[in-house]
Amino acid sequence: MTLWILATLPVALAAENAGSKPASENERGMPDRIIKPRRVIALQSEPEDKETGRYDWGPSVMRDGHLYRMWWVRQGGGGSKRFAYRATLPDGEVFEFTYPDYGDRIYYAESRDGLTWPGIAGDDFAGRPEEYDPDANGPLMVLRPAESRHQIHHVGRPSVIKVEGVFYMYYEAPSDYRVTRGPDGQPKVGEEYGNAVFLATSPDGKRWRHWPDDTDPQPLLKPPADGPTKYGYGQPSVCYRDGRFVLHYVNSHSGPGDFMIRIESMEPFFKQAKTWPRSLTPATQPAGAPAGRSTSVPAGAVARFAQTDVRYLGDVFYLVRPAYGTGNLGVLATRDGVFHADADAHLPAQVFPQIAVRDPRGQNYRERLFPAFLTDPHGRILVEEGHAVLFYSSGRGFKEHAYTWDLQRCEVDVEILQTMAR
Questions:
Q1: What's residue 400's pLDDT?
Q2: Which one, out of 36, 38, 175, 193, has a CA that is 20 to 30 A from the CA of 113?
Q3: Are 71 and 142 contacting, i.e. CB atoms less than 8 angstroms apart?
């Protein structure tokens, strides 16, 4: 079973092993509080086979008119082709290997009510993309890696908006493998590294083209070439507000751990992006740190931790992410763009409030992954029957239990969210 190693894996395992010790109100600026959701629904029930089971994660869901659209990540690809990769080990030796045309791909499904998604289950849709509708008997694969100098093997974490009739999908993809020597002295192929943020565009949400070219996509955001080999930049979350494209993304390259960076642009390609002028300000500042921002916090870092979706409702931005290993989802609000409760947090499980989401399969399924708000085409949080809707993946754990990851949804009273912003 192939699994794209998530940037958050080491932190998540630490959180799970350490337990979820709540932080005090003084430490986090929010009283410890658990939110109870309604209508927790499993959208699928995949066979749990460790060898052959697929996993599903990273949904991006919008209501476009009367149609609900979902893009998410699933294993796919024919597996019949192999691609060559050439790596240089730390001692200078060149090592060549191949990898299959099978990995994380971006899929698409539709729904008439946002509750039932017949197209999620089953084999890949075999018809033409323009024929796909809510009655389709399987998901539609819409994006795969270009297998180019900038993206290899996987694509992931789509975030989709629609502006003036054009669909924009921001997503992540790796460009490199980490190759080292094992204890036996033989080359060892490790995780994919050098992730960057890319863009694809579509006229209908079904037929997509990498930007600016299908054969050689160019990253919108990529980490510097120098420095330690790390995950890089990825996990984008985008919205369109007041004529500006607002993008939050993970930076695991610049600071200790993962930070969510906010940038804005008047156009979708972020060619002249402006970094958000405010950042997290930890209570304890290193010696010599400039006023208002720690030297250990990257510019524009408005939150900590990965697997985060940031969208808006009115003049408030809301954040949702997993509280690793607890079965909960963390949710925060801000009017100035910075999620201050994260300033001195070490683990997402320490930050409250949290939404207690029970997996219908039982108490052993305590890992939530990559939650996202249901939005309108611009990325504004939708309110349905007085509730915000969240989509996410749920399972028994991380890499070793990826075959248990299924898509689910729940609803949260919007008055609770609005109270957080007061």
A1: 87
A2: 36
A3: yes
- Angle, CA of 38, 42 and 48, to the nearest 5°: 145
pLDDT digits (tens, 9 = 90+) for 317-365: 999 999 999 999 999 999 999 999 999 999 999 999 999 999 999 999 9
* Phi, psi of 6, deg, nearest 5: -80, 150
Strand partners, 402: none
Q: Is the peptide bond before 353 cis (omega within 30 degrees of 0)?
A: yes
All residues at 6 or more sequence positions from 184 whose CB lies less than 8 Å from its CB, including other chains: none
Global pTM reads 0.91
Q: Residue 135 in contact with residue 122, Cβ under 8 Å? A: no
Instruction: Name which CATH class applies to 9-282+293-420.
Output: mainly beta
Please give the single-letter amino acid code of residue 107.
Y
At a CB cut-off of 8 Å and minimum separation 6, what does 394 contact? 42, 357, 359, 365, 367, 368, 369, 405, 406, 407, 408
DSSP string, 276-302: -S-----SSPPTTPPTTS-TTS-TTEE
Q: What is the pLDDT of residues 29-52, one digit of tens each?
A: 444 599 999 999 999 988 898 888
Task: Report phi then psi at 417, rounded to 5.
Answer: -65, -45
In this prediction, residue 80 carries a pLDDT of 81
pLDDT of residue 186: 92
Cα–Cα distance, 375 to 312 (Å, whole number): 9
Instruction: Give CA separation, 95 vs 91, 176, 182, 187, 235, in Å.
Output: 11, 13, 13, 7, 30
Q: What is the reported pLDDT for 303?
A: 97
For 244, the 3-state DSSP assignment is: strand
SS3 content of the chain, % helix, strand, coil (to 5): 10, 40, 50
End-to-end CA distance of the chain: 47
Amino acid, single-letter form, for residue 82: R
